[in-house]
Amino acid sequence: MSQPAPADAAAPGDTDRPAASAAMVALTDLHLELESAAGTVNILRGIDLAIGRGETVSVVGPSGSGKSSMMMIIAGLERPTRGRVTVAGTDLGALDEDGLALFRRQHVGIVFQNFHLIPTMTALENVAIPMEFAGRADAFDAARAMLASVGLDHRETHYPSQLSGGEQQRVALARAFAGEPDLILADEPTGNLDAATGHTIVELMFRLARERGASFMLITHDAALAARCTRQIRLQDGRIVDDGTGPAGTAETGTDGAPRRAVG
Ligand SMILES: Nc1ncnc2c1ncn2[C@@H]1O[C@H](COP(=O)(O)OP(=O)(O)OP(=O)(O)O)[C@@H](O)[C@H]1O
Ligand SMILES: [Mg+2]
Known about the structure:
The chain is of the alpha/beta class and 264 residues long. It is built from seven helices and ten strands.
């Protein structure tokens, strides 16, 4: 645990960016190693990252560079081999599985490439049931409002198999945002959609994130989409090779880590 600290150069918080505790996401010396038939695979090799509240951040990098793995750890769906993960002020390493489930319900919304809707539930139930689990008495009313806000009020009783890909992803967005999360994580959310539908989904995601003041992390292979975020993080071979705050990104603001460009 207490190995000698490396030179401070790469440590978060060494500039006037926010201290880790003030960040929405703070990763410190994060490593992920998994065993495979071929031996140990070093998937993440020492990630340090701080993301502020309300920031929109894209994560880019070659296939296999560790983007999804990093996101799964931030979501509390995967545990790192070592390193510290703090999200919305919560140290995920201190939580057991039930604690992680509760943490996700309270703080995180996740959108996947393959929608991940529950096939035996209607659109409305897919959005409402997780809120009910979270103890919301008005879960169904809130879910109806959320579906309306993504333009699907006329599809409440449809099952996922009766919805187009774009409609399914809109349900997934409604579900992700319904719990009023502090952080939205999206892993190639337009990867299975045609360009026009993907564009609609993207506009919706940015609008919802902005309206709700959520931090937003978007994994994408689409350079134009990545550029819409106010900060771009590049992963390569399990390391961050550019965290979007360096010289190429202009001077740091020094206030709250907020990016220099306004969205929209
Ligand atoms: N359960 C596992 N066991 C062993 N290796 C794994 C496991 N899961 C992922 N990996 C490896 O970890 C590396 C990073 O995978 P990850 O899915 O995070 O990449 P990615 O950057 O999201 O790639 P893509 O752009 O293709 O989605 C890959 O080399 C992958 O083969
Ligand atoms: Mg991936």
